Amino acid sequence: MMKGFHFAPRLLKDLRRYDKQKFTADLMAGLIVGIVALPLAIAFGIASGVSPEKGIITAIVAGFIISALGGSRVQIGGPTGAFIVIIYGIIQQFGLSGLMVATMLAGVFLILLGVFRLGTIIKFIPYPIVVGFTSGIAVTIFTTQIKDLFGLTTGELPADFISKWGTYFRCFNTIDWPSAAVGILSIVVIALTPKVSKKIPGSLVAILLMTGAVWMLKEFFGIASIKTIGDYYPNIKAQIPALEMPSITWEQVKMLFPTAMTIAVLGAIESLLSATVADGVCGDHHDSNQELIGQGIANVCTPLFGGIPATGAIARTMTNINNGGRTPVAGIIHAAVLLLIFLVLMPLAAYIPMACLAGVLVVVAYNMSGWRTFRELMRNPKSDITVLIITFLLTIIFDLTIAIEVGLVLACLLFMRRMAESTQISVIADEIDPAEETDAEVHEEHLIIPEGVEVYEINGPYFFGIANKFEELMAQMNDHPRVRIIRMRRVPFIDSTGIHNLHNLCEMSRREGTHIVLSGVTDGVYAVLARNGFCELLGKDHICPNINTALARATELAKQLNLH
Predict the structure, then answer these.
(1) pTM above 0.85, yes or no
(2) pLDDT tens sequence across 546-560
(3) 260 with 124, same domain?
């Protein structure tokens, strides 16, 4: 492990001052969060393409590990809507064994991010990318639920977004009205429940009401067209599966590497975002690196029990805080509650209507969409809007891996263009007013630029985006002065392309009989130039601390050339 890193789960710190009062608060919070998490775990599992018990197992195993080994006091972990699309795609392409390998690889990546203290790097991912792929995932989740929400008879649905909607429009005449009523009523119940009680989860109320209603419709009115979980998963078992180690091959690792990276990045973003939001509410400060390690260990272990990728869940974390949870013990209790429900009541899940679960996920998709934030970002600069729209569309039309990759590349390119545009290159003629200069000795009224001397100023970072522009400017200059002064007082950093550009400029100027003098080089830039041997090539006496010294040196060099 890296020097300075310490494996310090937040649970160990909080247990040192744990008391009965805190346990009572954590117990109540854990009970409520466990009940809230139940319908979501089932819905996320089915929507991801796995059986409902795998969703609950993920919430149990990952929820326990994330609370026990993470870096946040109140984070609740488990399956989330953000993973639905990517999990479904992995299963379609690589099967359950591929999902297991990809999830474990993602767990290893998360652990490495934490061990090498790279948790803060995730915060540098541009906000438009986060909003773009989150909104895209929300639209995709909504799209996948249309069939069950309206009870459509479509056969096997195509994988891509556009073809899926084409199938829906062609098959909308097959709508099952009882199923549609259950789905729409489920959405209404979930929306209205908070107005009655904010402590009771609307999704659980909807599932209980709709399951009871559908059972009565079948038993007493003969309406049997409403599909339930049991119709699709008749062999639901209330038992924790035995540990199963996957057979991992190098070919699998190479194929699944990009997907695993996407899972890791997505998990890191969502968990750290959730922990940051939680910090703001409860006045705490989480350890982002320890949190990533906890998330990583959870994703390595959960697949061994048949689980799917997991991360910190904002909604469940906020439920934990709002109900009094203040230490990781609440998260552990939430996992224990889910385990108890799973072992005792899991067979009853077979009676839950698919249309009701679709309604639950439609509400999840709406909450994920962040349409208000999306609308506000549309007022931002065009570069941000471009990244937002492209990431959003790529997430919907292709997949999340491509969206994140292209979004990051595009954001970097636009950022570099913006940086290049902010760097100015100017030519100073005749004289310099020392009153306006930060590196000039102001006892002189004006600094006269001697004949045969040209002064250029670079204002901004001197990196590859601007270095070529400067080289082109030099090439366009038809005159051959005796001395060129390049002022670099406002150059905060220089990269290898900038250094290469200066090397070329020196060689070209030497052939033309022109001296190069650098003025106002900062300590950081000077250190980079020295390490690359540029100072020896140019001559240390040609690198001056300010414009006064540079002009004096230029005058001296010009006189020497005149003598020759």
Answers:
(1) no
(2) 888 898 998 898 888
(3) yes
